[in-house]
């Protein structure tokens, strides 16, 4: 099962998730990475869930139109919207104030 390493505010949180997991959906039911993950709409509209992918980006599908619209040039820097990702492989993400919308 995929291992998720999530960095936030200088802390590192690590958890194992089922394949095809959406981290915003999990946080919504108070499972890891709750309460550390910042998000709001869960629908690709607010970009509050934006994360910089530190590892495992090669396993992710290409950004969808919502990510392109919300992230713009941050996509090229390696950002993705957590609410638009279904995790199937190990991944390492960072979310911090600098990444805030
Ligand atoms: S939670 Fe709003 S864009 Fe992801």
TrEMBL record:
Domain 2Fe-2S ferredoxin-type: start-end pairs: 35-85
Superkingdom per UniProt: Bacteria
Gene3D superfamilies per the UniProt record, alphabetical: 3.10.20.30
InterPro entries attached to this UniProt entry: 2Fe-2S_ferredoxin-like_sf, 2Fe-2S_ferredoxin-type, Beta-grasp_dom_sf
Protein name, per record: 2Fe-2S iron-sulfur cluster-binding protein
Source lineage: Bacteria, Pseudomonadati, Pseudomonadota, Betaproteobacteria, Burkholderiales
């Amino acid at each position: 099962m995929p291992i998720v390493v999530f960095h936030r505010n200088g802390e590192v949180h690590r958890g194992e998730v089922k394949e095809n997991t959406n981290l915003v959906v999990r946080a919504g039911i108070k499972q890891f990475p709750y309460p550390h993950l910042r998000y709001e709409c869960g629908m690709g509209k607010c970009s509050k869930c934006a994360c910089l992918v530190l590892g495992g980006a090669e396993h992710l599908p290409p950004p969808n139109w919502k990510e392109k619209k919300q992230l713009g040039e941050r996509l090229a820097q390696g950002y993705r919207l957590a609410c638009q990702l279904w995790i199937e492989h190990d991944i390492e993400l960072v979310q911090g104030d600098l990444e805030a919308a």
